[in-house]
Known about the structure:
It comes from Eutrema salsugineum (Saltwater cress). The chain has helices at residues 2-6, 38-43, 66-73, 87-95, 111-127; strands at residues 14-17, 20-23, 28-34, 53-57, 79-84, 103-106, 134-154, 163-169, 172-177, 192-197, 201-204, 208-211, 220-224, 230-251, 260-266, 272-274, 286-288, 297-302, 307-308, 311-312. By secondary structure, it is mainly beta. It folds into 2 domains: 2-127, no CATH class; 134-308, Endonuclease - Pi-scei, Chain A, domain 1, CATH 2.170.16. The strands form 4 sheets. A 6-stranded mixed β-sheet has the order 1-2-3-4-5-6. Strands 7-14-13-8-9-18 form a 6-stranded antiparallel β-barrel. Helix 4 (87-95) packs parallel to helix 5. The model has no long low-confidence stretch (mean pLDDT 82).
Amino acid sequence: xxxxxxxxxxxxxxxxxxxxxxxxxxxxxxxxxxxxxxxxxxxxxxxxxxxxxxxxxxxxxxxxxxxxxxxxxxxxxxxxxxxxxxxxxxxxxxxxxxxxxxxxxxxxxxxxxxxxxxxxxxxxxxxxxxxxxxxxxxxxxxxxxxxxxxxxxxxxxxxxxxxxxxxxxxxxxxxxxxxxxxxxxxxxxxxxxxxxxxxxxxxxxxxxxxxxxxxxxxxxxxxxxxxxxxxxxxxxxxxxxxxxxxxxxxxxxxxxxxxxxxxxxxxxxxxxxxxxxxxxxxxxxxxxxxxxxxxxxxxxxxxxxxxxxxxxxxxxxxxx
Length: 320
């Protein structure tokens, strides 16, 4: 079994001896406390420990809400770890009350559980990276008739400047604004992005894309703001309905030979494209497609055009 785990990643060996964790040199790196009841949790005096790290093992007491644990330990100067038997339980400890615990100790002999948790941390690390967004100039706006458009309702609220990266071609995804802005025609829906037709690509975690038609309840997408800051959000509902559509094309420069990028969207005031962020400017955050015109500036995400099952590959491809 050790060989199986060694193939997963580089590992540092630690040893648990009664109430402490030591490294290969015998240095104490953490104190271990076994907790069986809520009363025992309240009586803990972890601040009296000399070590910076504290490991809590809840033994057979499995009903403790992760939120209660984080609330009880808030303000502590120690880094608190909880022993978890599954990856899903570990995620609860890491996300409770938005902050979570300092870490977890995964107690398992299942390599798949380790890989699952590794993927989770990879996504969290990805969110800390800022995406590079590029200014593009609108070159064409044209009505194209009816089509099946997709509304993506998230389990999270979006703020002004945030939306989803969507496009007809994977080489360039437009930042489509959420419906968080007030409108004269409909109430604000800050959880929704009217994202475009079923054929369009949308950015998802792992630097991948999928078709809007493939989104389902429970799947994750990437929410991005004007500055490229990204976060992961869960899809709560997807609605596909026939609506009038409008074609939008953009280029990075006015050169005739310059590659163009395009997106098709519903032709309605509540659908908008995010504009470049400008400090100390009263410029609007997004431009409704009903007001969009050649010369307007919007934001796009440049990436490789060739895709296989949503994964970027090195391959010659022509998309028009």
